[in-house]
Amino acid sequence: MIQHHGLEWYGEGATFAEVCNDYTKVEYKCNGIGVLYDYALFLGIDLIFMDFNCTDTFREPIPNKNIIEIRHYQKGRVEFELRNNKVFHIKEGELCINALANIPAAYSFPFGYGVGLSCVIDKDSVDAETQQIFSYYNIDVLNLGRELELEKKWFLCRTPQRLLHIFDELYAAKGIEGRNYFRIKLLELFYHIKQLRIEDQYEATYYAKEQIEIIKRIRQQLIENLDKKISIEELLRKEPMSKVTFQAIFKQIYGDTPYAHIKKYKMNLAAVYLQETDQSITQIAGELGYSNISKFARAFQEVFGMLPKDYRKAKK
């Protein structure tokens, strides 16, 4: 019989929001939205959908779980802090597999949101019946990914073409299909995971936690002063980091150069103001550091494909 996990399995701040026949909905106390949909598909094997819209850092509740975990993110980017104070990031569309030796200490979302899924195999809980079911298809569920050297490091790759439709179908079926559907899809997923080889991966880039904190600190200063012209060089004078290193790590975290990222941040904020306030376009431009209205309009059009005045008409 498949059993639901207790709250301690989900970590600090978790509460049960809904317990259904097919899944358990878990919500986290955070500064936004943090929701899991946990489908317990076999004894010891869970498929968990994650929907986060917050900037909180979440701690791994049970650090010594003997697990194999397959992660995929449909939207956003996730930051993992390992127990050696190293940090790395998983981007949209990447596939990651890890095991006991590399369970993260904490995770957070640099963009403030993340939508993904995680398949967790708790090797100490998988029973003989479950092992036998998968063995019919020549899948050793307790040693899935054995060829990927998971005892040494995370396996990270761009999601292979043959797996894309599986993840698309899983996301589309959340809250619609029942447990049996997801069991079939999981079997298909494991079949393809079994075909992966160490040569398919690319090296994850790790940074020291202290370096990540510098990047976030400077980004926050830039965001808090959108109406001012503050140079990165000026902010870096107080930090033990070169501009070249700053730009490289910034792009790894946020996927853009600092200039491009802040520009997009400003334009997204402008879009909110245009839609939700009656401020003039000149006022909005000024609040975001643009004294030249034409430059602001051009920057907005580059991001949204239309001028600010046309965007406001379309959204009002």
From TrEMBL:
Please list the residue ranges annotated as the HTH araC/xylS-type domain.
Answer: 216-314
Could you give a GO molecular-function term held by this entry? DNA-binding transcription factor activity
Identify the domain of life.
Answer: Bacteria
- Sorted alphabetically, which SUPFAM superfamilies does this protein's record hold? Homeodomain-like (SSF46689)
Reply yes or no: does the keyword Cytoplasm apply.
no
Per the UniProt record, the source organism is: Eisenbergiella tayi
PROSITE patterns associated with the record: HTH_ARAC_FAMILY_2 (PS01124)
Keywords, in A-Z order: DNA-binding, Transcription, Transcription regulation
The answer, when asked if Transcription is one of the entry's keywords, is: yes
Q: Please give the name of this protein.
A: Regulatory protein SoxS
Against InterPro entries, the record matches this protein to: Homeodomain-like_sf, HTH_AraC, PchR_regulatory_protein, Tscrpt_reg_AraC-type_HTH
Q: Which PANTHER family match?
A: REGULATORY PROTEIN PCHR
